[in-house]
Amino acid sequence: MEPLVKLSGIIKQFPNVVALKEVDFSLREGEVHSLVGENGAGKSTLMNVLYGVIQPDRGDIFIRGEKQHFHSARDAMNLGIGMVHQEFMLAPTMTVLENIILGFEPTKRSVLDYDLAYEQITELSREYGLAVRPESKIMDNSVGEAQRVEILKALYRGAEVLILDEPTAVLTPQETDELFRVIASLKQHGKTVIFISHKLQEVMEISDRITVMRDGKVQGTLDVADATKEKLAVLMVGREVFLNIKAASTKAGPVVLDVRGISARGRRKLSELTDVSFQVRAGEILGIAGVDGNGQSELVEALTGLGRVDQGEILISGTPITNLSPGQIRKKRVAHIPEDRNTSGLCKEMTIGENLIAITLDQPPLSKHGVIRSREVNELAAKLVKEYDIRPANHRIRTANLSGGNKQKVIVAREVSEDADLLIAAHPTRGVDIGSIEFIRSILLAQREQGKAILLVSADLEEIMSLSDRIAVMYEGKIMGIVPAAEANERVLGLMMAGATYDEATQGKGDEVIEA
Amino acid sequence: MFSLSEIFTLTLIRATVRMSTPILLAALGLIVTELANITNIGVEGIMLVSAFIAVAASYWSGSWVVGILAAVVAGVLIAALMALIHLKFKADVFVAGIAINLFSLAFTRFLLKNWFGVAGSFYSPRISPIPRINLSFLQIHPVIDTLFNNYNLMDYLAIVLVFVFNFLIYKTVWGLRLRFTGVHPAAVETGGISVTTKKLQALLISGVLGGLAGAHLSLGYTTQFIENMTNGRGFIGVAAMYFGGVAPITTWLASLFFGFTEGVGARLQTMGFPSQFILMMPYVATVFAITFSMIRQQKKLTQKQPF
Lengths: 516, 307
Known about the structure:
The complex is a heterodimer of chains A (516) and B (307).
Chain A: E1 5-14, E2 17-27, E3 32-36, H1 43-50, E4 58-63, E5 66-68, H2 73-78, E6 81-84, H3 96-101, E7 107-108, E8 111-112, H4 114-128, H5 143-156, E9 161-165, H6 173-188, E10 192-197, H7 200-206, E11 209-214, E12 217-223, H8 229-237, E13 255-264, E14 273-281, E15 285-289, H9 296-304, E16 311-316, E17 319-320, H10 326-331, E18 334-337, H11 341-345, H12 352-356, E19 367-368, E20 371-372, H13 374-387, H14 404-416, E21 422-426, H15 434-449, E22 453-457, H16 461-467, E23 470-475, E24 478-484, H17 490-497, H18 502-506, H19 510-515
Parallel strand pairs in A: 3-10, 3-11, 6-9, 9-10, 15-22, 15-23, 18-21, 21-22
Antiparallel strand pairs in A: 1-2, 1-4, 4-5, 7-8, 11-12, 13-14, 13-16, 16-17, 19-20, 23-24
Helix pairs in contact in A: 14-15
Chain B: H1 4-7, H2 10-35, H3 43-61, H4 64-88, H5 93-116, E1 121-122, H6 142-148, H7 153-171, H8 173-183, H9 185-190, H10 195-221, E2 225-226, H11 233-243, H12 248-270, H13 275-303
Antiparallel strand pairs in B: 1-2
């Protein structure tokens, strides 16, 4: 059978990097085809070629056997190719309906025909089981709802092929299940789906076929029956990887971080902290799970002095640090891996070395009487670059030129080498390659072995479950409960992430709570 | 002391409407650009050049119609220049606007000297003004007649344009795409629509409206050209646009408010109030209005962050 889409010998070169090196990719009509690979492997570039956003330097695109040239996304759309971007292309202040019809608006005597649009949308939404509220504004929708709007938008534009770019990265486990039902329904209606992900478990669950990319090349396309997680991981990384590396729990020591009933204002209503309390002991990792935007950022800001606390108290080894400045808090032996490496973790204009010494610069031996001692600085920087396998291994390179994984390693090296009592790690592996994930996780565990107290904030449940000794779940600025890792599973944590307490989640009442 | 009834008369209402017209025309253009995420402060300069060109064209041709058309062409040309600076060469639109405003002030002064050999102002009986419109069916009652009849053509036109733009912005495909351009350009691009084209359209339309506003100042509201005769009305238009929440009908009300402060000022001045204080009023009102709108906008932003 002739493939629906065939990409042949695609080459794309960006300044300094070859993003795609002679890639072949084919898609059968009606299949769910996963595209997996680390960040920077070329998945998104390849899909942007298919969606007409990027024009390849060489290579051909065939749709149903016919050669096509895409000059813009519009050309791809006209041939039935739709894409749901990782960052939603939805205007928050506009309604669901307006967002869906943008660019393909129905009119009656050159006036917008809202009634017809409403009918068309409710019809589509019924057909595919995509519940949306056409007249609500996007900003009043949940992430899951917004994603359904994006899928509807693609269908409304007549998509036969839907490219879903890491659609589960922002969803709770329950929302993911819901998305998988939608994908099944799309398949039933004869649509073809390209599912981009790096979560191998999901890929195994949903795909008919799986294509693995690495370094701008296709490493292989497998039928799901022939694939295993291990096989895929080897293809992705080029060697075996060990992500679930937790050693047996050592016994926890004295309380290092004691948070007592803190409240703080949030960037928005949902992330306002209300009466948050927990403790982290020496030699343990406390994981903070939750869907992004439920107060995790505000919590970290409160703990590190970057945000104000309105009520309650924070103690480090018994000394109060509430509303001290970030510098004063660091002096109480607190280290912090910030959630956004590009804006707060690094100064991108400065070198690896300068970033590595940024915290300890004012202390001997790095400086004396306010004068920097370059020999010591260079020695330390070179040592850390080697120890943490930062590439390229030259500390005089500006961090702006590093990959995500290496940027993150610079931050981890700086913060861990501070030898603090408490390490606050916010999304330490978000958006970095598998090799770096593995490395950063092993460092966190090594820190725990050395008796450090670690607070790990992450939206990645798999990461939380594989590293933490105890797991606190945040929802709308509150802690829904703290669960020992041994008793945690995705279902229970997922229900808590959607607002159920631990008891409700374990007694199976969680679904009703969410309904109400 | 003067009694309030002396200040608040029917003619004050007339003055309010008349003084709001140039502000309203400028503000309508500003709404269109603001929706495309361009705060076009260059409208002040567009108005000034258009006011001059309107007088010149009307003087030479003896026709106010030619005057208006020439003013609109001038407005569009300057808007096109801004589009070139901002959209093609990617300069900040505020900087481009300031450049246009400074240029316009000097340029009109230069042309005034060069073409008419005068400095400061230019008046001639040969300048054909935009006519007033007498609608005889409004003469049924003296109050109705005073309130609604015998305005300048441009006063009526501006009000019609409020409803025209309200329709265009909220009921047409063009308007929907324009509104998306400001809030989510990437969504517009992935919808297969060029953001640059939308922004160019918006700028050119603001050129047309700025041109009309300028023509009205020099051929309708007065019949002469005076150096810097816009006197900040373009900026007050910016205030009216924000105060009116970037929507035509509420912006009309905001323009009336500014027209009213000017009208009251003019009246108090004739009664012997210190003129410096009076002349300050529209600008004080502007500062308050802008402050108010910005506070409101901030609140909106903090309350309603998506996701």
